[in-house]
Design a protein that fits this description.
The complex is a heterodimer. Chain A has 10 helices and 9 strands. By secondary structure, chain A is α+β, with helices and mostly antiparallel strands. Chain A folds into 2 domains: 86 residues, Phosphorylase Kinase, domain 1, CATH 3.30.200; 212 residues, Aminoglycoside phosphotransferase (APH), C-terminal lobe (Aminoglycoside 3'-phosphotransferase, Chain: A, domain 2, Alpha-Beta Complex), CATH 3.90.1200.10. In chain A, strand 7 and strand 8 form a beta hairpin. By secondary structure, chain B is mainly α. In chain B, 18% of the residues are buried. The chains are: A alpha+beta, B mainly alpha. The interface between A and B is medium-sized, with 31 and 38 residues.
Chain lengths: 315, 128
């Protein structure tokens, strides 16, 4: 950053073996600039599994910013001369990411009813980014995703008949390839949205971004696990699917509600399988933590949500 | 025969001590972890209290559905396979009721405060 005179207030926000997040301030004659560093130490640059890699994350964040999606500006992409591994520095945006605060605290009361619609517009912005500008991303298709979830579930060796019911339903209702393959954020939900009293200020965490059916993002944000008790407001506990769709369509895109339902079921099952996966990692170590263990007991939450979607009572 | 106090009484006493005497002294991330731990102990108490009865009724439903008895693990695995193969579906008599009851019994132990559970457990018609 030209003219910067130093770095102050460095603090590690989170970090595992492969990726770290740091906050700090850039000292500058024109005033301090809040910044965030996301980096993978040298030797950990290769993206494990589904992760798209920090280089792609920086590119996508910058593309989102240029497309008018609320997003931090990327200030610097790490190079070999920085000797910090791979990663990037972005502008730090103030606001709240904790769902329970956003859904309960008075300072968000006024903006809450507007968020479902705003999120529709933001999703449309993400899906509208020209494919020719995108970096190299993995392609995800509904049919292979069903197969992968099924494989992962069976690898746990623990029968969950409701998961089999969901897998069967997904196979029977697979809508096939979308009309248009687009950029998919891949984790568009609470925790990855910085929200202030004025609305959504930033979309974060492009780690799971890929090419695929744009409807996936709309289904994922409707998964009941992200409603935090506000179960009659499907969109993150903020509002209705109709409001989400209205915001999406106002931005010039179309929605097929059946497709959204398909991806909501897929997302609910995926979160359930992820909960089971946490339990496996607890057992196999090295992260033998109590938090991971108890998340295994949250898979049943997705079972009741799958039944509410696929076999509602009183009908 | 193992002696008293029972595992339920012991676990409950430990959970109450942590909740009432230790939690107020701790803050920050450790307080969060302590809360997770207390919740886990409460879960264990619920399981020890509730699962004998719910396991028995689940086994009876599975035997009726499958026409054969076995361990809960084996009969659940067989049911899962029957659903996966398409041999059983929501039109299969008793299947929907079984899945609902089994799931409600799991949530009663795992997460009785989960909003979906409270809504469904509170339904008066219970007409699965």
């Amino acid at each position: 950053m030209p003219g910067a005179t130093g770095v102050e207030g460095v603090a590690k926000l989170s970090g595992g073996a492969s990726q770290e997040t740091w906050r700090f301030d850039i000292a500058h004659p024109a005033g301090r600039v809040g910044a965030i560093l996301r980096r993978a130490p040298a030797g950990y640059g290769a993206a494990p599994g589904r992760a798209t890699g920090l280089g792609n994350e920086a590119t996508l964040m910058q593309l989102a910013y240029e497309a008018g999606v609320p997003s931090p500006r990327v200030l610097h992409v790490l190079g070999p001369e920085d000797d910090l591994g791979t990663g990037f520095i972005m502008q730090r945006i103030e606001g709240e990411t904790i769902a329970r605060k956003i859904l309960r605290d008075a300072e968000f009361a006024e903006v809450r009813p507007r968020l479902a619609r705003q999120l529709g517009g933001i999703a449309a912005g993400i899906h509208g980014i020209a494919r020719s500008r995108l970096p190299d991303l993995r392609m995800m298709a509904s049919s292979s995703e069903i197969a992968e979830l099924g494989r992962e579930y069976r690898s746990f060796g623990w029968p969950r008949p409701v998961f089999d019911l969901a897998l069967r339903w997904l196979a029977d209702h697979d809508p096939g390839p979308p009309e248009e393959v687009t950029l998919v954020h891949g984790d568009f939900r609470h925790g990855n949205l910085i929200i202030g009293a004025d609305g959504v200020r930033a979309v974060l965490d492009w780690e799971l971004a890929h090419l695929g059916d744009p409807t996936e993002d709309l289904g994922w944000i409707c998964v009941n696990s992200w409603r935090f008790g506000e179960i009659d407001k499907p969109v993150g506990g903020f509002g209705s699917r109709e409001e989400l769709f209205a915001g999406y369509e106002a931005a010039g895109r179309t929605v097929d509600p059946d497709r959204v339902m398909f991806w909501e079921v897929m997302g609910t099952l995926r979160w359930g399988v992820m909960c089971c996966g946490m339990m496996q990692r607890f057992r196999q170590g090295p992260d033998h933590s109590m938090e991971r263990a108890v998340i295994g007991r949250r898979a049943s939450e997705t079972e009741i949500d799958l039944l509410r979607l696929l076999a509602p009572r009183g009908t | 025969m193992q002696d008293e106090p029972t595992p339920v009484e012991l676990t409950k006493a430990v959970a109450d001590f942590l909740r009432n005497d230790v939690a107020p002294l701790i803050s920050g991330h450790q307080a969060f972890k302590l809360r997770v731990g207390i919740n886990a102990l409460d879960l264990v108490v619920r399981q020890l209290t509730l699962s004998e009865a719910s396991d028995a009724t689940e086994a009876a439903r599975l035997a009726a559905l499958l026409g054969s008895a076995g361990s809960l693990f084996d009969t659940n695995r067989e049911l899962a396979e029957q659903i996966a193969s398409g041999a059983f579906n929501l039109a299969t008599p008793g299947l929907k009721e079984h899945l609902w009851q089994t799931t409600l019994d799991k949530l009663a132990v795992d997460q009785p405060n989960y909003a979906s559970y409270k809504r469904e457990a509170g339904r008066e018609d219970g007409d699965a």
